């Protein structure tokens, strides 16, 4: 199907919705006020702020305030897009108008994208118009305008804020059973978005926004793509029509978890012998991705050691003495050390699970990236200071790292798989079932492979690595 | 044409449609009858590829509902249980919107919309907001939506439920003409008189299973027994009856009437009339007693499934 022909229904859906929004005074009134009056209020506020901070010689604060207020002017109208998007699917379901639409020859992505587009257009137009009015007001009041790049960054951030909020809200709308349920889910969008804007504001006032804000824009783009992908992957006509109630069904949740955890195994032995290898085989591509990420972490650490050089004004004897002191303070060869090492590793992996569950697996790679980054940094820093990194690797990392690194790799892969399960179409599975299946798989890999490897690694790190390190490094 | 083989749909542990086998030829109307929650709407949704079967298969207008959902939907016109109209749009805008979604373009789309609006008496209200339409007008508009792209298959859920007698008649006539134009039509309804008047075949569904699927006459015969006939006399007649032909059973008698159950009316009735006239009975009328589909339907609802006819 030629792309223009394929996009035609998207536009038909979006056009109807936008026309409908233009007829709804409940949408138009706030947008009108936020476009026609709010920018002038912000102009006035900016002017007052500049005058106020000038008295104390803090013009810099005033200058940073100007783009921040532009961001605020843009954000208020786009917050309306959240309301529109939240009711896009579930609102039609409640009004009974979704079924005729689902019965047309539209493809799922066309319907979904049409709804997505329609929720953004009007609020975004209002936001850009408001920001334009605000900038014009500044110019008329002879206030120094922010650099063009900063203006571009603020416009880009506004666009991507709208895209992320709408993508998230449309996911909520297509999965919720009622408008009320969708509105309750909105806090999962509003709270992270508020935190994100606080972070962006901090960057703006910090003043090194030239590169960092572009990274924020890039991060928002990635998040929006993931959210759209999640929405499309789990958009099911059947679910939209079928589900009437969404009560918390713990029994169902537990059954689903157990089913995916147990897999096809009939006994503990067959679970270990067949289920774990089968699951690992299923994850082979993700294992490869995680391995590449581990190498990236290592490289990134080494790169940072170059960028932020660490001068070790010590000779080999002094290093040995310091390390020796450290090993005295950190009592090796005791059960307490073993428990602490194992506990720390498990905590880090659980943190990865939690981060990964809320970020489609993306933030779940942080523990591995951080660990590999530290290793890369240390190796490079030692090398920069004229020490032999190979000795450090063999003496201090390799003995237990042989088990710990694969454990970390497997756990990270299982976390990434949770995200993949969410963004990949899963025929016959709801979003919650896909999430539960991913978590069950994570626990399966943890229990069947990662924890045994971590126990082994902690045993070696407690009782064997110190001996090897002492022998090789502290002679 | 519509054909289903063992079509089934389960929502979790609840089986909404269970092994349905149906066949609707071109130019045929099938009325799907059943109590609320019997599986009628789910069957319709399966036939529009909105729901995916958990077992079995179905072909609509020659396309597999699983393999070619888009093509199925392009060839089906659906009147849904909830009309689902957009209140802020005018009737004309609404139809033009759906016409575009069904691939009708430009002047063709406009012409088609206006022809149908005129046919259903909605031309005058075409530019009014749907929110201002009466219930019956909304139903007609929803029906027009289903007919917009001249689909070979029509799935109509309660097409006349909110209409006044005049409009209901227009809709019934439309269904008749669509049948003549070789459309295959599935009609879900609780209006049994309408079903009897419009349908070539009746399928009764209960708890997701088809209990009966046959012509209205065959259905009544199966559920209510052989047809009943009534003879009325010009004056009271209390004499004993003459010897009746085989296959005739007297089921009731009054002073000036007798009711017979006749197994094979075509063969037996001439013999019966011959016997009665030979006995010099003062015959006034000889007619079949009407038996409603409702009676048959209610009988079906009280029957246990093993007695039902596949």
TrEMBL record, chain A:
<feature type="transmembrane region" description="Helical">
    <location>
        <begin position="445"/>
        <end position="464"/>
    </location>
</feature>
<keyword id="KW-1133">Transmembrane helix</keyword>
<feature type="transmembrane region" description="Helical">
    <location>
        <begin position="212"/>
        <end position="232"/>
    </location>
</feature>
<keyword id="KW-0812">Transmembrane</keyword>
<feature type="transmembrane region" description="Helical">
    <location>
        <begin position="285"/>
        <end position="305"/>
    </location>
</feature>
<feature type="transmembrane region" description="Helical">
    <location>
        <begin position="152"/>
        <end position="172"/>
    </location>
</feature>
<dbReference type="GO" id="GO:0005886">
    <property type="term" value="C:plasma membrane"/>
</dbReference>
<feature type="transmembrane region" description="Helical">
    <location>
        <begin position="66"/>
        <end position="86"/>
    </location>
</feature>
<feature type="transmembrane region" description="Helical">
    <location>
        <begin position="120"/>
        <end position="140"/>
    </location>
</feature>
<dbReference type="Pfam" id="PF12679">
    <property type="entry name" value="ABC2_membrane_2"/>
</dbReference>
<feature type="transmembrane region" description="Helical">
    <location>
        <begin position="348"/>
        <end position="370"/>
    </location>
</feature>
<protein>
    <recommendedName>
        <fullName>ABC-2 type transporter domain-containing protein</fullName>
    </recommendedName>
</protein>
<dbReference type="GO" id="GO:0140359">
    <property type="term" value="F:ABC-type transporter activity"/>
</dbReference>
<dbReference type="InterPro" id="IPR002798">
    <property type="entry name" value="SpoIIM-like"/>
</dbReference>
<feature type="transmembrane region" description="Helical">
    <location>
        <begin position="25"/>
        <end position="46"/>
    </location>
</feature>
<feature type="transmembrane region" description="Helical">
    <location>
        <begin position="184"/>
        <end position="206"/>
    </location>
</feature>
<dbReference type="Pfam" id="PF01944">
    <property type="entry name" value="SpoIIM"/>
</dbReference>
<keyword id="KW-0472">Membrane</keyword>
UniProtKB/TrEMBL annotation, chain B:
<dbReference type="GO" id="GO:0016887">
    <property type="term" value="F:ATP hydrolysis activity"/>
</dbReference>
<dbReference type="Pfam" id="PF00005">
    <property type="entry name" value="ABC_tran"/>
</dbReference>
<feature type="domain" description="ABC transporter">
    <location>
        <begin position="2"/>
        <end position="232"/>
    </location>
</feature>
<keyword id="KW-0813">Transport</keyword>
<dbReference type="InterPro" id="IPR017871">
    <property type="entry name" value="ABC_transporter-like_CS"/>
</dbReference>
<protein>
    <submittedName>
        <fullName>ABC transporter</fullName>
    </submittedName>
</protein>
<dbReference type="GO" id="GO:0005524">
    <property type="term" value="F:ATP binding"/>
</dbReference>
<dbReference type="InterPro" id="IPR050763">
    <property type="entry name" value="ABC_transporter_ATP-binding"/>
</dbReference>
<dbReference type="InterPro" id="IPR003593">
    <property type="entry name" value="AAA+_ATPase"/>
</dbReference>
<keyword id="KW-0547">Nucleotide-binding</keyword>
<dbReference type="InterPro" id="IPR003439">
    <property type="entry name" value="ABC_transporter-like_ATP-bd"/>
</dbReference>
<dbReference type="InterPro" id="IPR027417">
    <property type="entry name" value="P-loop_NTPase"/>
</dbReference>
<keyword id="KW-0067">ATP-binding</keyword>
<comment type="similarity">
    <text>Belongs to the ABC transporter superfamily.</text>
</comment>
């Amino acid at each position: 199907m030629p792309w223009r022909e394929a996009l035609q229904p998207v536009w038909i859906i979006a056009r109807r919705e936008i026309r409908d929004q233009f007829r709804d005074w409940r949408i138009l009134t706030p947008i009108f006020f936020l476009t026609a009056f709010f920018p002038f209020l912000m102009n006035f506020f900016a002017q007052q702020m500049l005058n106020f901070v000038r008295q104390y010689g803090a013009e810099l604060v005033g200058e940073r305030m100007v783009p921040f207020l532009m961001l605020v002017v843009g954000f208020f109208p786009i917050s309306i897009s959240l309301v529109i998007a939240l009711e896009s699917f579930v609102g039609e379901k409640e009004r009974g108008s979704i079924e005729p639409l689902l019965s047309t020859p539209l493809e799922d992505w066309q319907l979904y994208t049409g709804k997505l587009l329609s929720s953004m257009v009007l609020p975004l137009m209002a936001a850009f118009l408001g920001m334009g009015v605000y900038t014009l007001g500044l110019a008329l009041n002879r206030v120094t305008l922010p650099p063009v790049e900063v203006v571009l960054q603020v416009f880009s951030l506004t666009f991507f804020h709208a895209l992320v909020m709408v993508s998230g809200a449309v996911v909520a709308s297509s999965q919720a059973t009622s408008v009320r349920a969708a509105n309750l889910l909105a806090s999962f969008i509003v709270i992270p978005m508020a935190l994100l804007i606080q972070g962006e504001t901090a960057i703006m006032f910090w003043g090194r926004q030239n590169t960092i804000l572009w990274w924020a824009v890039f991060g928002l783009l990635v998040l929006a793509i993931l959210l759209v992908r999640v929405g499309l992957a789990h958009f099911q006509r059947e679910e939209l029509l079928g589900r009437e109630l969404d009560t918390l069904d713990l029994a169902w949740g537990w059954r689903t978890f157990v089913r995916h955890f147990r897999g096809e195994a009939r006994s503990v032995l067959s679970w270990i012998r067949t289920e774990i290898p089968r699951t690992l085989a299923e994850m082979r591509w993700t294992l490869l991705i995680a391995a590449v990420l581990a190498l990236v972490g290592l490289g990134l650490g080494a790169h940072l050691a170059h960028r932020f050089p660490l001068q070790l004004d010590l000779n080999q004897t002094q290093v040995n003495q310091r390390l020796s002191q450290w090993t005295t303070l950190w009592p090796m060869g005791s059960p307490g050390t073993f428990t602490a090492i194992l506990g720390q590793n498990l905590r880090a992996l659980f943190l990865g699970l939690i981060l990964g569950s809320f970020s489609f697996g993306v933030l779940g790679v942080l523990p591995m990236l951080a660990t590999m980054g530290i290793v890369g940094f240390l190796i490079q820093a030692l090398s920069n200071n004229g020490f032999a990194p190979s000795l450090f690797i063999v003496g201090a990392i390799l003995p237990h790292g042989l088990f710990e690194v694969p454990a970390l790799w497997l756990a990270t892969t299982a976390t990434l798989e949770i995200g993949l399960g969410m963004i990949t179409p899963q025929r016959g599975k709801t979003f919650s079932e896909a999430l539960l299946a991913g978590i069950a798989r994570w626990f399966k890999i943890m229990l069947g492979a990662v924890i045994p490897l971590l126990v082994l690694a902690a045993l070696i790190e407690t009782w064997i690595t110190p001996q090897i390190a002492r022998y090789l490094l502290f002679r | 044409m519509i054909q289903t083989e063992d079509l089934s749909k389960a929502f979790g542990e609840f089986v909404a449609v269970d092994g349905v086998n149906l066949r609707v030829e071109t130019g045929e109307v099938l009325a799907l009858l059943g109590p609320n929650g019997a599986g009628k709407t789910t069957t319709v949704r399966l036939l529009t590829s909105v729901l995916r079967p958990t077992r079995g298969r179905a072909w609509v207008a020659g396309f597999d509902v699983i393999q070619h959902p888009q093509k199925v939907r392009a060839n089906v016109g659906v009147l849904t249980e909830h009309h689902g109209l957009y209140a802020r749009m005018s009737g004309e805008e609404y139809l033009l919107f759906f016409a575009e979604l069904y691939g009708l373009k430009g002047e063709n789309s406009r012409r088609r919309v206006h022809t149908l609006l005129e046919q259903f008496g909605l031309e005058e209200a075409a530019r009014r907001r749907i929110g201002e339409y009466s219930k019956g007008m909304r139903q007609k508009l929803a029906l027009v939506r289903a007919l917009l792209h001249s689909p070979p298959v029509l799935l109509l859920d309660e097409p006349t439920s909110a209409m006044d007698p005049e409009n209901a008649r227009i809709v019934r006539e439309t269904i008749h003409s669509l049948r003549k134009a070789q459309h295959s039509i599935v009609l879900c309804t609780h209006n049994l008189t309408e079903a009897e008047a419009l349908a070539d075949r009746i399928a009764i569904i209960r708890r997701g299973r088809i209990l009966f699927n046959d012509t209205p006459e065959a259905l009544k015969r199966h559920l209510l027994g052989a047809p009943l006939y009534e003879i009325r006399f010009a004056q009271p007649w209390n004499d004993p009856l003459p010897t009746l032909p085989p296959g005739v059973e007297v089921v009731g008698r009054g002073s000036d009437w007798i009711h017979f159950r006749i197994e094979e009316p075509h063969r037996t009735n001439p013999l019966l009339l011959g016997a009665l006239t030979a006995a010099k009975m003062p015959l006034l009328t000889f007619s079949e007693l009407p038996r409603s589909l409702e009676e048959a339907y209610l009988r079906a609802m009280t029957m246990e499934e093993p007695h039902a006819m596949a």
